[in-house]
Design brief:
It is built from eight helices and 18 strands. It has 396 residues and is of the alpha+beta class. One of its GO terms (molecular function) is hydrolase activity.
């Protein structure tokens, strides 16, 4: 065969092979693209850090400095849910509008009243003329559509306040547990002072703008006045609530809240967790496969989206994560994604250490005592150190 024909034949053969390869590759590429898109939402799960046991004979342990969080949220903080150790922060002490996250303070007052045995979970709470929001548009103002004169148990209203962000539930509970001589605003300020939430501002129990608070509008204040607190303060109240009622970490994961406005009537409303589970959780970039056990959202047009969440890693460590300024106020995804991002940064840059009673730890910053200090532990627990410093403390 002439060389030029042999060459042309080779070229044709090469082209045919190339065409077949491209065709097959194109099919693989199309199929692969679907897999790639799925992987973007379901990244490979990485291992979470295992807890290191530290010998009781080890010298003083050094706690990790709170890491500077790199997140698109304007304010953020991550603390250990059991010890209150501050693990990461960003603008954590800036006062911002917190909207419905305000309900966490009302929850604190309720839990204290239960602890003091002034009320119980089964105590019936009346819906008053002021707390009756049944005529409000439910698409704008979350409520239970209950009416003046009806009574619901503390447990029902408490769960509705958390899982539905029901404004009428928050108003009714705050009025019920506050000292009779105080207005609702005065009671909120009193509770905030007891928790040392310095410079925070409080107007109503539901976190509504003053102009939208209905009968709870505070006179002689701007229409735009709103509850303000820092992410550190929101984390502090969340931490105190878990101490008052550890069972809160197990609640609020139902897809709907069932309640009884009257003995003859049963109603059910979809919870925030249901919306999160269906519309947000599947799309989170979550390499450590962290879970949300409990959360309370809040958002304002001025300050954007926020959430206070109790999160858990695959090793069982529980973290309180609070973010604000995460996307605009109607977007739900950014507040949860930035929470995952913040918690992941902490877990990748710190090492959990199991310490025993009477061991000394230095450089410890907690949500109750944010200035680093040295202390001897009164109880055993898990604290967090630098991944580099802890290597010499391991027990073989």
């Amino acid at each position: 065969m002439p060389k030029y024909l042999q060459s042309a034949g080779n070229r044709r053969s090469l082209w045919q092979r190339t065409w077949k390869w491209l065709l097959g590759g194109g099919i693989i590429l199309v199929l692969g693209a679907g897999g790639l898109a799925y992987q973007l939402h379901q990244p490979a799960v990485k291992r979470t850090p295992k807890t290191v046991k530290v010998s009781k004979n080890s010298p003083t342990i050094t706690a990790a400095n709170p890491i500077p969080l790199k997140t698109s949220a304007k304010e953020a903080i991550v603390i250990d849910a059991h010890t209150g150790q501050i693990l990461g922060e960003k603008n954590a002490h800036r006062q911002v509008g917190i909207a419905s996250e305000s309900k966490i303070l009302t929850a604190n007052a309720v839990l204290k009243a239960i602890r003091a045995k002034k009320i119980s979970w089964s105590t019936m709470v009346p819906i008053t003329k002021k707390s009756d929001w049944s005529k409000k548009d439910p698409n704008v103002y979350a409520h239970l559509d209950v009416h003046e004169g009806q009574k619901l148990p503390v447990r029902t209203l408490f769960n509705a306040m958390y899982t539905l962000s029901a404004n009428d539930a928050a108003f009714a509970l705050a009025d019920f547990v506050k000292p009779p001589r105080l207005t609702q605003q005065q009671a909120l300020q009193k509770w905030a002072k007891e928790l040392r939430l310095t410079d925070s501002q409080w107007y109503n129990a539901a976190g509504q703008l003053n102009r939208n608070a209905g009968a709870y509008e505070v006179p002689h204040q701007k229409f735009t006045a709103e509850n303000k607190a820092s992410v550190a303060q929101v984390a502090k109240v969340t931490y105190q609530n878990l101490k008052l009622d550890p069972a809160m970490s197990q609640d609020f994961q139902a897809d709907e809240l069932v309640y009884h406005p009257t003995e003859q009537e049963t109603r059910a409303k979809p919870t925030e967790f249901s919306r999160f589970r269906k519309g947000t959780r599947p799309y989170l970039r979550n390499p450590l496969n962290l879970t949300f056990k409990n959360f309370k959202t809040g958002s304002t047009p001025k300050y954007g989206g926020g959430v206070a969440a109790l999160m858990k890693d695959q090793a069982g460590h529980e973290l309180i994560v609070v973010v604000n300024g995460a996307g605009n106020y109607i977007s739900r995804f950014p507040r949860f994604q930035t929470s995952v991002t913040a918690a992941t940064q902490v877990l990748e840059q710190t090492q959990p250490m199991e310490l025993k009673t009477h061991q000394r730890i230095q450089n410890l910053s907690t949500i109750k005592h944010p200035h680093a200090q040295s202390q001897k532990l009164e109880h055993p627990g898990v604290y967090w150190g630098s991944t580099k410093l802890i290597q010499t403390k391991r027990v073989n």
